TrEMBL record:
<dbReference type="InterPro" id="IPR000182">
    <property type="entry name" value="GNAT_dom"/>
</dbReference>
<dbReference type="Pfam" id="PF18713">
    <property type="entry name" value="DUF5645"/>
</dbReference>
<dbReference type="InterPro" id="IPR013653">
    <property type="entry name" value="GCN5-like_dom"/>
</dbReference>
<dbReference type="GO" id="GO:0016747">
    <property type="term" value="F:acyltransferase activity, transferring groups other than amino-acyl groups"/>
</dbReference>
<protein>
    <recommendedName>
        <fullName>N-acetyltransferase domain-containing protein</fullName>
    </recommendedName>
</protein>
<dbReference type="InterPro" id="IPR041506">
    <property type="entry name" value="DUF5645"/>
</dbReference>
<feature type="domain" description="N-acetyltransferase">
    <location>
        <begin position="159"/>
        <end position="289"/>
    </location>
</feature>
<dbReference type="InterPro" id="IPR016181">
    <property type="entry name" value="Acyl_CoA_acyltransferase"/>
</dbReference>
<dbReference type="InterPro" id="IPR053225">
    <property type="entry name" value="Acyl-CoA_N-acyltransferase"/>
</dbReference>
<dbReference type="Pfam" id="PF08445">
    <property type="entry name" value="FR47"/>
</dbReference>
């Protein structure tokens, strides 16, 4: 019988775990750090999505963590965020093998895995009799909160920046390229509970571009309507959301597909710092049984 070493993280330990343990590896830990912070915030506000956060209570200092985000739409995978402090990879491997908290049959999506842990996750998926598939490699870009808060920008006369509302969700979701793994409830929670801003036409109020602080606590869902690209609206909305995040004490981070050169250049132009290694997204699939 396997022994479960993970326990659910109480809110009382969250501040110490994030500020004293994870921050020793800043900014490498930034994704797990804000995933945890956002999870407790959403759980206190009755989000449609649900979070489970697990840690090793008798060895807090090693920073081993698994977070699971489940959504009400059953056909969508759970999102799993993993982390352990450098040097603890073997303990993480043993924990990942023994834990019963991950529902492997639900084909989870491992989001932004630290590269040093990628092989462990992929091997574990195979040992569970399943197959791992690379969904994408993400480039992590981030900015210190104080720098973000000092950003400035000008808004063209023909547009204004306003809050997104739930009335915009259907339209936004129709243009979201990641709707294959992220359901509409992600946007519902984000718009209601987090920062979500849009660039709107002063002429007719049309929503032209938007970005949000998403379910993992980072800047996400940056989209400019196709007919309004190359007019600076993407940069404008990134600046606006980044600044508000900084003013709220959050160091913004974004996970950008390594093939998305337009977004990579945009975030560089805004002043985001590039992390040194890519962070893979890995999806779990059924094994290939087609034979030779």
């Amino acid at each position: 019988m396997r022994s479960e070493v993970l326990e659910e993280m109480p809110e009382a330990i969250m501040e110490y775990f994030c500020e004293q343990v994870l921050k020793r590896d800043w900014p490498n830990c930034i994704h797990a750090y804000y995933f945890i912070k956002n999870a407790f915030q959403w759980m206190s506000k009755n989000s449609a999505s649900s979070y489970k956060l697990y840690y090793i209570s008798n060895d807090v200092e090693n920073g081993t963590f698994i977070g699971i985000l489940s959504r009400p739409e059953e056909e969508y995978p759970d999102v799993v965020v993993t982390y352990t402090c450098p040097g603890n990879e073997e303990q993480f491997r043993r924990m990942l093998y023994s834990t019963e908290y991950i529902n492997w049959q639900k084909k989870p999506l491992f989001q932004a895995i630290p590269f040093r842990m990628k092989a462990i996750v992929e091997t574990m998926i195979e040992e569970k009799g399943l197959k791992s598939k690379l969904y994408s490699n993400a480039v992590l870009k981030w900015m210190p909160a104080d720098v973000a808060a000092r950003l400035d920008y000008e808004i063209p006369d023909d547009v204004f920046i306003g809050q997104l509302s739930v009335d915009h969700i259907d339209f936004i979701y129709s243009l979201w390229t990641h709707s294959d793994v992220y359901p509409k409830s992600d946007l519902w929670d984000t718009v209601r509970l987090n920062i979500g801003l849009g660039v709107f036409s002063r002429h007719n109020g049309e929503l032209l571009a938007w970005a949000m602080c998403g379910s993992y606590g980072g800047l996400s869902t940056l989209i400019v309507q196709p007919d309004y690209r190359r007019r600076g609206f993407g940069k404008l909305i990134v600046l606006a959301v980044t600044k508000v995040m900084g003013e709220n004490g959050v160091s913004p981070h974004a996970l950008i597909n390594e093939k998305n050169n337009v977004s990579l250049g945009l975030f560089k132009n805004v002043g985001y710092i590039k992390h040194s290694t890519t962070l893979p997204y890995v999806v779990v699939e059924d094994p290939d049984t087609s034979g030779p």
